[in-house]
């Protein structure tokens, strides 16, 4: 019977060297491929690298925002939320901050037409984008149809959740002028009202939708 004891004691010196050589060859091939795929040096590569490696902050940075149709420039720290920039830097205090963690929807604004919690959105992420707050709904002293419907249907109650509720409904009506009640319920699912005025909100949006259907 053959003695395999020596052959079974792990790698031999010859097999180890053979494996090491194969690994070195594979690594060299990988490096060669990476080198071929690497962007060529030049102005374009330098610009891309600068953009990738750019660091802003912690000092204040100047941002240009389009708020309610007007260009506004603010200088804020990079950690500043959109809600803080709107209320503190631009004095647009219609946007309310209640929970400050995106759970109540009181701070809802429209960002490029989509409802967002401004307490969770950094101001720097809104730079160059369209922001609409509750102040942007009325035309001077004339309420928008949605605001007027809220008043007529008694959808305001204590009023603290109203700005965010209005903006969520505005975003819905912009997407769908005649939404069903189920769609309104879904649109304001993130807006909490301690007064329980939801049925009045549904009625107000239905009234706006009905007026658009007639028009």
Could you characterize the architecture of this molecule?
The chain has helices at 13-37, 43-53, 82-89, 145-152, 162-175, 181-187, 198-214, and strands at residues 61-67, 70-76, 108-111, 114-117, 130-132. It has 215 residues and is α+β, with helices and mostly antiparallel strands. A 5-stranded mixed sheet has the order 2-1-5-3-4, with helices on both faces. The protein contains 7 helices and 5 strands. The chain has 2 domains: 57-136, Beta-grasp domain (Ubiquitin-like (UB roll), Roll); 138-215, Orthogonal Bundle (DNA polymerase, domain 1). It is extended and about 90 Å long. It starts with 12 loop residues before the first helix and ends with a helix.
SSE run:
HHEEHEEEHHHH
Per CATH, the class of the largest domain reads Alpha Beta
Q: Total number of helical segments?
A: 7
Strand content: 5-15%
Strand order of the largest sheet: 2-1-5-3-4
**Which class do the helix and strand fractions yield?**
alpha+beta
Average pLDDT score: 85
Task: Supply the CATH architecture of the largest domain.
Answer: Roll
**What share of residues is helical?**
40-55%
What is the CATH topology assignment of the largest domain? Ubiquitin-like (UB roll)
Number of strands: 5
User: Based on CA inertia axes, which overall geometry fits?
Assistant: extended
Number of domains: 2
Low-confidence stretches: 33-37
Calculate the terminal CA-CA distance, rounded to whole Å.
100 Å
CATH homologous superfamily of the largest domain, by name?
A: Beta-grasp domain
């Amino acid at each position: 019977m053959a003695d395999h004891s020596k052959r079974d004691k792990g790698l031999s010196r010859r097999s180890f060297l053979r494996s090491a050589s194969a690994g070195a060859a594979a690594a060299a091939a990988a490096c060669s491929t990476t080198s071929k795929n690497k962007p060529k040096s030049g102005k374009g590569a330098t610009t891309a690298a600068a953009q990738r490696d750019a660091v802003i902050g912690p000092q204040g940075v100047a941002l240009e925002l389009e708020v309610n149709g007007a260009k506004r420039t603010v200088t804020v720290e990079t950690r500043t939320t959109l809600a803080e920039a709107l209320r503190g830097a631009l004095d647009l205090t219609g946007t309310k901050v209640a929970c400050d963690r995106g759970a109540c929807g009181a701070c809802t604004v429209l960002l490029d037409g989509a409802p967002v919690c401004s307490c969770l959105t950094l101001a720097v992420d809104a730079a160059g984008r369209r922001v609409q707050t509750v102040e942007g709904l009325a035309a001077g002293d004339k309420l928008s149809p949605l605001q007027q419907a809220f008043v007529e249907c008694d959808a305001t109650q204590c009023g603290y959740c109203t700005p965010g509720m209005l903006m969520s409904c505005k975003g819905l009506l912009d997407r769908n002028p005649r939404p069903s009640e189920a769609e309104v319920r879904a649109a304001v699912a993130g807006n909490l009202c301690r007064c329980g005025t939801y049925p009045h909100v549904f009625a107000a949006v239905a009234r706006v939708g009905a007026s658009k259907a007639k028009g």
